[in-house]
Amino acid sequence: MVSPTALILVCLLPNPRDMEIARLLGWYRIPFRTAPKVVAVDTLAFYQPASFGAAGGQILYTAPVRGHELTTRAELLRDEPNHPRAREEYFKIQLGALEKLKKPIKAEKWKRITFFYTTGEYLLKAQTLNDLVVAGDERQLLWQSLRDRAENEQLYQTDLPAADLPPEVLLALLGIQDAPGVYSAKKQP
């Protein structure tokens, strides 16, 4: 169940095949070039467009996020090796089990969405997509949470093993500048 404090990414689920991939294989894909700034969220909420027929124009399912990795479309969809975007990078978001909402969240006037952020509290109370929009002082808290997540992601993602990096590079990666007792290139005479 979605926690009221959860950071939620509302995302487009383009077609029923993608729903089956999420349900059976436990992942969702986001093209790297169009991805939102932060994918390290607690939960995905899936917006189903008109391609879902009568079940379109609403959010009916969520899924907890278990992790993410960067890969290619060809690695994700091996049955489409000649797709025009086969070599492009995609985030593969690993998911827990899909959870059906007690009541669907209807689109009403919204017809096109790709991604936007909300919170578990908003999701649990929403009747329409408009109800998911975080406003006022809470919007500042949401953006601060997203910034914190982005900074945490940067701390743990590097292609170089930490042991092979000089201390000043490690400190720079961690965002620590001018630490006492640490040589800094900026302090050279």
Question: What is this entry, summarized?
Answer:
With 189 residues, the chain is of the alpha+beta class.
Radius of gyration: 20 Å
Per DSSP E runs of 2 or more residues, the count of β-strands stands at 7
Structural class: alpha+beta
- The averaged pLDDT comes out at 81
The rounded distance between the terminal residues' Cα atoms is 58 Å
Indicate the CATH architecture of the largest domain. Answer: Roll
Written account of the structure:
- By secondary structure, this protein is of the alpha+beta class.
- It folds into 2 domains: 7-142, Roll (Archaeosine Trna-guanine Transglycosylase, Chain: A, domain 4); 160-189, no CATH class.
- Helices cover 25% and strands 28% of the residues.
- It is built from 5 helices and 7 strands.
- It is globular.
What are the SSEs and their pairings?
Elements lengths: L6 E6 L3 H10 L1 E5 L11 E6 L9 E15 H4 L12 E7 L3 E8 L8 E5 H6 L11 H20 L10 H7 L16
Parallel strand pairs: 1-3
Antiparallel strand pairs: 1-7, 2-5, 3-4, 4-5, 4-6
Which key terms come to mind for this protein?
189 residues, alpha+beta, Archaeosine Trna-guanine Transglycosylase, Chain: A, domain 4, 2 domains, 5 helices, 7 strands, disordered C terminus
